[in-house]
Amino acid sequence: MPQEPPAESPVNGSHTPGSSDTVVKQDVAAHDGRTGNGALTGYTVVTLAGGIAGVYCTKLLADAGARVVFAEPPRGIALRCRTSSDARPEPGVDGALFQFLAGAGHSVVIDPSRADDHVLLDSLLTDADAVVWSPGSALADDRGCTPAALRERHPHLVVTAITPFGLDGPWAGRPATEFTLQAWSGGIVGLGRGAPERAPVHIGGEVGEWFAGAHAAAATLTARHRALRTGTGELVDLSMLETQILGLSYYPVSFYDTVNRPFRTQRRLSRPGVATAADGLIAVGCGTAQQWFDLCVMVGHPEWIDEDPAPAITERTNEKAGEIAAWFAERTVDEIRELATAFRIPNSPVASGADVTGLDQHRARKFFDVNPRSGFARPGPPFRTTPALLRSPEPAPALGEHTDHYRSTTAGTARGHDAHASTRSSTATTNPLPFAGLRVLDMTTFWAGPSCTHYLALQGAEVIHVESAQRPDGTRLIAGVPADEDRWWEKSGIFSGLNTNKRGITVDFRSDAGREILRRLVASCDVLVENYTPRVIEQIGLDFDTVRTLRPDAIMVRMPGFGLDGPWRDNPAFAYVIEDAAGLTWRTGYADQNPVEPYSLGDPNAGVHALVGLLLALEHRRRTGEGVLVEAAMVDAALNIAAEQVIEYSAYGTLLGRDGNRGPHAAPQNLYRAAGVDEFGRPDNWVALAVTTDEQWVALTTALDEPAWAKVPYLRTAAGRRAHHDEIDTHLSAWCAGRPAGEIVDVLWTAGVPVAEVRQPHRQTEIPQLDHRNFFEPVPHPVTPTARHSTVPARFSAGPARYHRAHAPLLGQDNDAVLRELGYSAQEIAALEKDRVIGGEPGF
């Protein structure tokens, strides 16, 4: 076991901690909401996963008290020595990222060539509750360690498999990377990110790996919830492509089917977006008419408000871009932030690994602390709970540190368990909806909150979605139809995509009668989820103390943008602002330009992390009967999936940046323009290509008929290819320019090279793998045409066979039924409607 360096030292001694490290050490000594045990104490997970997705999944479980055992090949998993820069850990010291992700884990070396090690692995699995698996290591790829083989030998296990496309189907087993999956998902072009004169740009930082890991944790806990009832395990088959569809695009298929046109077809730079101030970068959002009006006043041009003609906001901001930029350039970040916050215009500094720990909000909430072994800065958990359900962080294990212990303590248990397990009857198929009987009060809007509760609704929970007729859910306003069209508020494919299977009521909770309805609802529900700014819930008298008086065992999930305390507590928190404050924006874009906001992931990433916290709260309540407050701040979740930036900077002094479509773990990696025009008549067809190994480079050059330029010796190594990336790009661009995208993919994918078409997101249904997995299901609707809706990104062997059972609720659709369940008479309901406490049309 390597000797522990002093707590104040970096992991390899190559970087003297700077001001941000000092901030962390002096001001951020410990996390709130942690304890010595955890909600999953007594739960054991064996992991045969080696990438970020699988290990982040187990980190979320380990933080909640699960015992995580890394079954590693003799050389260890690749993540032990991974960095995203030229920095390297000292000999004998694991990489900082591994130390962050594997805290509190156990390590057991399993040599797949040794029969006795297979016995040891089976012994570990006998004593486990779940196993997390991903391909790519000598151990995971052993035929005795496939997910099917693990399930056959150990039917009590929940086996969570994380693969690019799923375990079966026409694309199963095909090579892919984070980068090529973004292309297939439509996420590279889906929300118009980037400038139209340049290639579209992916979201940097391998965010899809982290997002898939959070989904894998939620799926594993869902299967556990079912296993507690059925007494048996199941196979959870998670597709990273499907998680990216849910995280990087905004229900484009449902939108397209509803209005027969794409949500967005052109790339554009948001204005002001990321702007250059006198002393740094600041991001300011302008997505609504009110924000445009306020921006005009803020920059000293109120006359812009009344200019004719009145173009769309995007056109206005781009038309005035020069004058706006000049105003920003004359003021400091703090000056602009103070003004924008006063006007309630969304804003944030653009954080990076070098300065994110010093932002006043993160300091006030003591979010960052230090690794107990190597002293680098690291983010805290993605949610906080009352009572504390997370345990205090512990060091990561050295390779094989626990092998001898498990050899001695698990000897002989495999045979005994197999004999016992073979007599079990599988009952999981009788419980296809694991959350049936769970009643959820859904006081959420837009994307982050509804995505959390939608998962529960798809898995059987009764979810009651609350809006008000005066202020309907914001996604109803993103309908893509004119406001004078009949029942326009019922025609949003985005609202529909987020709210199928839910019941819907309207309540004006500004009134005493409306607040009384909410109190009765709280008393009748197991779970309350809300994502308003903190002051809203407190003003209507539904803080957690009040909720507990109404329902002592209630689980309350609060999803503020920046947390329930701190100087940014009440700031507006759109997804892009969260991305700015966490560092996701910093790594997205071209090095010679200001970064661009991902404009997507901040919301659904918050939703899935809140879901994990909610499922842990259910576990705690099952054990103790006690209610739980889950504080799932959006920015805390985003800071976790951007963790590598602050870890790399603090440990090695390396500031990770952005490099267009290139990446630190593949060379070449880029987008290349293909021949022809796209469906909109533009020469904008692209393919994504990423070579991660020397073997894939040989496959690529072979598929290209071994051109002379590719035979030079310096391109045989990853370092050489990275050093000569421009040269490779020139040749690949020329080769791709004369071929259609489909032909390029056929040639290279068949050869074993990770490659993808950059798809428009509304064309996701054309992917045969998604059709094979029934990822989209048609849902009839009483007002709009039948539309295809995405499901969940994992297939559960215990079901259900179909997820969508009812269309998204019409506005106020279930007012009468729900109020009657709460004890209201027909006369009282009529009076509530007359007094406009409830209603079925907006703004009545």
TrEMBL record:
Gene3D superfamilies: Crotonobetainyl-coa:carnitine coa-transferase, domain 1, formyl-coa transferase, domain 3. InterPro entries: CoA-transferase_III_domain, CoA-Trfase_fam_III, CoA-Trfase_III_dom3_sf, CoA-Trfase_III_dom_1_sf. The keyword Transferase applies. Keywords: Transferase. Residues 11-22 have a biased composition (Polar residues). GO terms for molecular function: CoA-transferase activity. Residues 1-22, 375-429 are annotated as: Disordered. Pfam families: CoA_transf_3 (PF02515). This is CoA transferase. It comes from Nocardia speluncae.
